[in-house]
Amino acid sequence: MKEEDIRPKKNMLEEKRLRAEDIKHLMERKNEFVKIPCPACESDENRFKFSKEGFNFNECAKCSTLFINPRPTRDMLSEYYTASKSIKYWNDNIFPASENTRREQIFVPRAKKVIELCKKFGVTTDTIVDIGAGFGTFMEEINKLNVFKRAVVIEPSPDLAETCRRKGLEVIESTIEDAKLSGANVITNFELIEHLFWPKDFLFACSKILSKGGVFILTTPNIKGFDLLTLGELSDNIEGPNHLNYFHPDSLSRLLEVCGFEVVEVLTPGKLDAEIVREKILAGKLDISKSPFLRNTLIDQWETKGEIFQCFLAENNLSSHLWIVTRKV
Ligand SMILES: [Zn+2]
Fold it and tell me: What structural domains does the chain harbor?
């Protein structure tokens, strides 16, 4: 998989323009942003790390989680998600145009991986719930595998919920906090908690609808992964207000434990870290004059070492794409 396949450069230029407009609009109310403690360990001690597009990214002094602080309020965020032109552009253009690639490269393997994990942990396969289902592509692939008796998607955005309904999926158009549901055997959510004002509330709500022994699987960026750690603020993934929280395996595991989950597996099956850093080097955006190892691995020996290096990162929990599998205690 290449980054260009899922984020075509020509679309991304337009998306960038619209995002700048969205942010300008939000920054007009910057004086209303609120300070929060660390979203992972709730410590009040955090220090300024860098500022990007007007957002301050602070690092928790206790657990090294990176997070936007101060941040837009819950209401401002929900308004942003309703009115954002850049998000609408993703939903109207980028996602549909790249859906086939995303299906093959992301959702088919993702569905297989989830089923594999369910088998590994011997979970009952009556009901699976996917939260923040987007286009519903993941759940379509789950249904094709014919393992679960009931598959439900929870999607608060009216447009996306409608897309899921048209695909014949069972949809609850709501947030998880308001969804009337219980007894789920498996809950999944992909790249969601980094967007949330206060992830702990969301995790508690998930814990409530999960049955005892049920499996809760989530993915999110790993701030201690290779490309995020190497690029820092240069990373395109570091973007407010879409991404507010950047956990790592330890900080997220601790938060999950507080919310009643037992962590049973931590994985970083990322495929793009090395390529993303390489692209930044080739574009002249990352100075590697003092990093001969990066030049050697990602430029000079790319053809023979690039893939091996990426595999090493993925296999040793050093990639920026984090999966955590937990069970309800
Ligand atoms: Zn912390």
Answer: 3-328 (3.40.50.150)
